[in-house]
Design brief:
The protein is α/β, with parallel strands linked by helices and 303 residues long. The chain has 2 domains: 7-104 and 209-302, 3-Layer(aba) Sandwich (Rossmann fold); 130-206, DNA polymerase, domain 1, CATH 1.10.150. The protein is built from 13 helices and 9 strands. It has helices at residues 7-14, 31-39, 53-62, 80-87, 103-107, 133-139, 142-153, 158-168, 174-184, 196-206, 209-223, 237-250, 283-288, and strands at 21-24, 45-50, 70-74, 92-98, 224-234, 254-255, 266-267, 271-273, 296-302. A 7-stranded mixed beta sheet has the order 3-2-1-4-5-9-8, with helices on both faces. Strands 6-7 form a two-stranded antiparallel sheet. Helix 1 crosses helix 2 (31-39). The radius of gyration is 20 Å and the shape is globular. The two termini are 35 Å apart.
C-alpha cells in the first residue's frame, strides 16, 4: 500500500499513544489509519469514515491486522458527533481529515474524477451526492456554469468555458468535456492542465465539499479532549481558507461572542494552533507523488 500524502507529518502531528481513541474522517484505503493504529498499539482504537463503499472494502483489507481495534462506517465525517455517541466515546485524542478525492478515485476512470482518463461524468464520492457532474454540465444554464467554474475552480476563463460547454452539449464523458475546455482555454505554457479547475469545481459542487468541511470542523474541535490533536490536509485554497479561518477564530479569546448567547463573560481560546504556516510535502514526496504538490496541513491542539 502506497503511503498517503504527508504520512509521517500526520503521525508526528497526532502523536498517537497506546489506549487512546482516534478518528480518520476520510479513511480512503486506510493509509493514515494504519499508521495511527500501529502507533497506538496495543490498545488504541480508531473510527474511520468514508462515503465510498469501495474505499471501505480496501481499507478493511489493509487494516485486517488490527482487527478489534478499528470501526469503519460508510458515512460522511459530518456525522462525527452521531457516530461517536453510537460507540459511546465521550471524547477523542486525535482526528485527521484528508480532504478531497483519493488517489484510487482518480485512478478509476469509471468514477469520472480524472481528466487524464476517459470515463462517465460522475464524480460522486458516494450514494448521498444529489446530482452527478453529467447532470450539472447538461442542465445548468451558461451563467450558472460560469459562476460555478469561477467560484469553485477560481478559473479566469470561466465564462469562455461555460459558453463552449453549452454550445457543445450534450457532453457525457470526461474526454468530451476536456476537448471542449482545451478548445475554449488552451493556456499554452501553463503548468496545470486547462481542465484542472473545471473538474475541481464540478467535484466540489457534486459532493458539497465546502459545506461538509464547515459542518465537520466544529464537531471535530468539540469532540477532542484537552491535549487532543486535530490535523487537516486540504488541496485547494477554498478548503484551506475555511480551515485556516475557523482555527484562527477558535484560537482567540473573545469577549461576549455574539453567536454564543449563553456566555455572559469572556470566552477563552478553545484551541492552540501548532503550526502558524501550513506544512507542505517535501520535494521528494512531490517527485514520488505529483498529486501531493498542492497539499497543506494545519494542526491544532485542544486547550
Amino acid at each position: 500500500m502506497h503511503k498517503p500524502v504527508l504520512y509521517q507529518e500526520i503521525i508526528h502531528a497526532l502523536q498517537p499513544q497506546n489506549g487512546r481513541r482516534y478518528v480518520d474522517g476520510t479513511v480512503g484505503a486506510g493509509g493514515h489509519a494504519r499508521g495511527i493504529l500501529e502507533a497506538c498499539a496495543p490498545d488504541g482504537h480508531l473510527l474511520g469514515f468514508d462515503v465510498d463503499a469501495h474505499a471501505l472494502t480496501i481499507a478493511r483489507e489493509n487494516l485486517a491486522p488490527y482487527e478489534n481495534r478499528f470501526h469503519l462506517v460508510q458515512a460522511s465525517h459530518i456525522t462525527l458527533s452521531e457516530q461517536l455517541k453510537k460507540l459511546q466515546w465521550d471524547a477523542i485524542d486525535g482526528i485527521v481529515l484528508d480532504l478531497g478525492a483519493s488517489s484510487m478515485q482518480f485512478d478509476n476512470a469509471e468514477r469520472g474524477f480524472s481528466f487524464m482518463q476517459d470515463g462517465p461524468l460522475d464524480m460522486k464520492f458516494g450514494i448521498n451526492a444529489v446530482m452527478s457532474a453529467d447532470e450539472i454540465i447538461n442542465t445548468f444554464d451558461e451563467k450558472e456554469l460560469a459562476d460555478l467554474i469561477f467560484k469553485y475552480g477560481e478559473d479566469r476563463d470561466a465564462k469562455k468555458i461555460a459558453k463552449a460547454i453549452v454550445m457543445n452539449r450534450p457532453l457525457h464523458t470526461t474526454r468530451q468535456l476536456v476537448a471542449v475546455i482545451e478548445q475554449a482555454s488552451p493556456r499554452r505554457g501553463d503548468k496545470t492542465h486547462p481542465a484542472t479547475q473545471t473538474f475541481q469545481a464540478l467535484r466540489i459542487v457534486v459532493n458539497d465539499e465546502l459545506a461538509a468541511v464547515q459542518k465537520t470542523l466544529p464537531q471535530a474541535v468539540a469532540s477532542l479532549r484537552s491535549g487532543g490533536r486535530g490535523a487537516v490536509i486540504s488541496f485547494h485554497s477554498l478548503e484551506d481558507r475555511i480551515v485556516k479561518d475557523y482555527f484562527r477564530e477558535q484560537s482567540k479569546e473573545l469577549i461576549n461572542p455574539p453567536y454564543e448567547k449563553i456566555y455572559e463573560h469572556e470566552r477563552g481560546a478553545v484551541i492552540k494552533i501548532i503550526n502558524k504556516k501550513p506544512i507542505t510535502p517535501s520535494v521528494e514526496e512531490i517527485q514520488e507523488n505529483p498529486r501531493a504538490r498542492s497539499a497543506k496541513l494545519r494542526v491544532i491542539e485542544k486547550l
